[in-house]
Amino acid sequence: MAMPPEPQSVEEPSYIDYETFLSPDFAPASFANSLVLATNNPDDSPLDLSTPLSRVLFDAQEIDSHIHLLTSRSAVPLLQYTQSQTQASKAIVAQLDAQIASLNDSYKQLEREIIDKHAEAEEIRQVALRLWETLRLGRSMGRCLQLGRQLEAQFSELGGPGAGKSDHGALVRCSYTILSLREVLDSKAPGEEGHGLDKLTAIKSLRDAVTVPIERRISEVSERLVREFAIPSSTTFAQGEEARSRLASAVSALYLLSPTAGVQPERWSPRLLLQALDAYVRSALQASTAALSRSLGQLPTLDKSLAEVVSHCQNIASLELILEATETPLHPLVPAPAKQKQHSLIQSLLSRFETSSLISYFWRTMASNISARVQEIASRGGIVARTLRTNSTVVGDAIRQAVVKGGQTPNAFSGGKKKPSVVANWDREIAVMMGSVLNNIGR
């Protein structure tokens, strides 16, 4: 490769001070000022600028001539150098073109082998994902439909109003099946078993035609069994055990079917069960209060009314006995810590009424309700009030006996293995009931 000509080989002596012009500190204004001062006296006025201007023009002409001379003498070496550089560049470009073509061919081959196949693989992956999603939905739907058929079969075991003997244990079995369906259908988050099921027509039909109606029917039957629960004095032991079994199945079903969605586990409570039991206790209190209120105005009917009150109280005592003996069902949708706090169903009801005994709650609440009725009779005066004051001792004894009888174990349960855990001494309840009547007669 040819080298460019050396400037020193063609350089001739010159009066121009190239070092001054090539110095990094060169300043045109300072150089012009030095020329003016060199050719003029600083005290002259005006200054003669023609001489320094001629000097500058002459220097510029000299430099131009020198450049022309250098380029003329070095034209051939410069052209040779440029030609050699051009040829070298062309050779490099030719080699680069071959390599670039090779790279392009390699890229096209990689595109065919990798990118195109990757696109095909991505399509296959999408198809596989959709097939897997379809399979998952199919399995979940199949499980739901199987649970739906199982629920229908279990519900048929319960029997209808006109059927003969019905299996009340089907209430609990149906409740667990409903919870299994609810567990699947409520798992709607991505990746969970029930994700996307709500969009399927079969699942909508299952919910509308099977799950919701049967769940409503199970709740209605359970609430009716609680509402109609009664243990008459003539009930035999076998009949008592049958009533116990029916009530245990009903309260267990209501416990299991109580809503769990949107409730924190530690604050969850069996709402349906508590509502049904609360309504039962308050209905008994309302009927007992009404009966005793009427009899206080008509003393000949006092014994009959107190017998009705005792019957209601013994029903509540039986209810407490059965609830205390019934263990809390295992709830699959409620975490274990929330369920381990209570071992029997009676604890939830006692906590709701803020009492330690339903019998005590019955008499104390009834005493507070009957007090207003006695005050009303006393304030009106007349023969009714005088009769009540005259027979206050008889009324007090009748109330005492009623409280004692109401706290006794029903005959149907007296032969069973499980004894009621109720307090045998009802002195406080007797005092409260007698005080609500006798203490208000003279007011």
From TrEMBL:
UniProt-listed InterPro entries: Cog5 (IPR019465), COG5_helical (IPR048485), COG5_N (IPR049176)
Gene Ontology CC terms, in alphabetical order: Golgi membrane; Golgi transport complex
The Conserved oligomeric Golgi complex subunit 5 helical domain, residue ranges: 197-401
Conserved oligomeric Golgi complex subunit 5 N-terminal domain ranges (all copies): 19-151
Pfam families attached to this UniProt entry: COG5_C, COG5_N
Bilayer topology: Peripheral membrane protein
Subcellular location: Golgi apparatus membrane
GO BP annotations listed: intra-Golgi vesicle-mediated transport
Metal-binding among keywords: no
Coiled-coil portions: 93-127
UniProt keyword terms in alphabetical order: Coiled coil, Golgi apparatus, Membrane
Keyword Cell wall biogenesis/degradation: no
The protein's name in its UniProt record: Conserved oligomeric Golgi complex subunit 5
Lineage of the species this protein comes from: Eukaryota, Fungi, Dikarya, Ascomycota, Pezizomycotina
